[in-house]
Amino acid sequence: MPPTFATPTAETLPLYVVEHDSFEPWQASLDPATRAWVQATDFKPSIGAVALLPGVDGTIAAAVVGYGKPAERARGRFALAAAVAKLPARVFYFETTPEGFDAETEALGWLLSSYAFDRYASAHGAKAELICPDGVDATRIEAIAAGEILTRDLINTPANDMGPDQLEAAARALADQFGAAIMVCAGDDLLAQNFPMIHAVGRASTRAPRLLDMTWGDAGPKLTLVGKGVCFDTGGLNLKPGNSMGLMKKDMGGAATVLGLAHMVMALNLPLRLRVLIPAVENSVSGNAFRPGDILTSRKGLTVEINNTDAEGRLVLADALALAAEDTPDQIISMATLTGAARVAVGPDLSPFYVDDDAVANALMQAGAKVADPLWRMPFWDPYESMIEPGIADLDNAPSGGFAGSITAALFLRRFVEGGRYTHFDIYGWNPSAKPARPKGGVGMGARAILEALPEVLGL
Q: What is the value of pTM for the model shown?
């Protein structure tokens, strides 16, 4: 179940959040016995530090957690969450917090600390619960946490239990939850409905490729989210080596992230018209697999020379983006675990994004900084357009040379939404090592920043 804030009870305990500079004044304010106890435990207010304070009857009366120094907090996010797993399974409320304490972000981190992926083996997140802090919108934070956990669960599930059919089932469950409509085009119907590149990429799998099309809302600006749903990527005939295939269950991270974001939007009942498009495929190897050297004709009519079958994500996204543009939405946002080049450029924590509109870029950057969902703007660099033009077709899906791989992939996608307001995220979708509120494994990237920026981007 998604985490929620606790209800106050008679046994709710106070929690003191103390940073380095306020530690001595806080300690001096304690009664002599409690002050002696804190000194005896050698508690220091470093990030993640915890001390339980006893009552006169020997029970736990309160707890204090360290919040470190500003420079230490700037090097990470969800600083409070570093201590949450060390607290006992009790209900807490913030008794004191430092000046400038971001209660909204830290409360979200607290909720996310309870997450553990336990589908296949017993696992537990933090057990301590929190009363929603004053001034924090509990409904909003709970919706964001639920959307993030949906994303994590989808990415963490291995491909044998998260193929195109199961991804469809997850989308249908989300649609049913919020009264959204959903249509699915699958198998050879993709050819009949003019989604030739989705079909080409997914036809070699025993699990039929499909396009998921979910719509919600009947008033307000139009927002279309497009998520790459490659449920497993062998690389196709350009087969990946084994060590590169090990994490390919996460290649549907873009789809998982837009579904998580859609959950947030619908749970908060934002005044907009939402559409979610997910090309769901498995890039496999068989006798009918698409080949290097093939030239495919896309939904938009642009021809694409296949120079690497492992550059399949942009192909399925292209057909979905062409469909999205036909509806002339106010904003199209694609999210995809698209290129290793993006990881080389910015690592696993930052979400690189591309957009031509400076106002949208600024809104996203500011939102990302505000909600601890860091982004980095990358350029749609027009001089590189020639790199994706092979000569015998309109476009090349894998330009030779290896330069600017994330940029050329973004330029490729932009060709299918010309004339629309378009933003593309080239995310990683995976946390390689455990961090506060972000265990190792699948993770949402960019969704919270987008949600925060939507009022400005769409004029809500």
A: 0.97
